Amino acid sequence: MNKEAPVPGQKETQPKLEKLLSETTTGGQALVLLGIEPPASDKPVLLLQKEQKEQLLKSATEGIPADHKKRLATASLNERDEFWKDTPEAERMDKWRAGFNGFLEGYTKDDTKTAEQNILKNILKRNILAEITADTVYSTFIQGEGKGDIEYYARRVVETNSIEDIEKHADLIKRLGSIYGYNSAKIGELLTHGIANARHNLEKFAASAQENLTTRTYGADVWTPLAQNAAKWDAKQHTRQAQPMQDAITQPLYESPQTAHPPEPEQQTSVEYHPFVADAGFFSEEDKGKPGANQDAYFVDRKYGAFGVFDGMGSYPKSGEAANGAKAYISEALAQPDLPIDETEALIRAAFTGASEELQKQQDARYQAVYEDIKSLVAGTLTDKEFNEKYGKPKPPDSLNLQEIRRMYEGPAARTHGWILEWIEGSTTISHAKDWQQDARYQAVYEDIKSLVAGTLTNEEFNEKYGPESRSEAQRIRRFYDPSRPDDIHKYLEKWIQERVKGLTTASIVKLCRGPKNERKAVIANLGDSRVYHYTAQDGKLRIVTLDDNNLYDIVGEERARELQDMKANGNGRPVSAETIKLYQSNPLHRSTWERESNVKKYPWGPNSEVEVPLQAFDDSSMTKYLPQANVEPNIYPPIDIARGDKLILTSDGVHDHSLTPEILDTITNPDNREAQKAATALVAFAKKGELIPHVQPGWPKDDTTAVVVEIK
Question: Which of 5, 239, 292, 514 has the fewest Cβ atoms surrounding its Cβ within 10 A?
Answer without folding.
Answer: 239
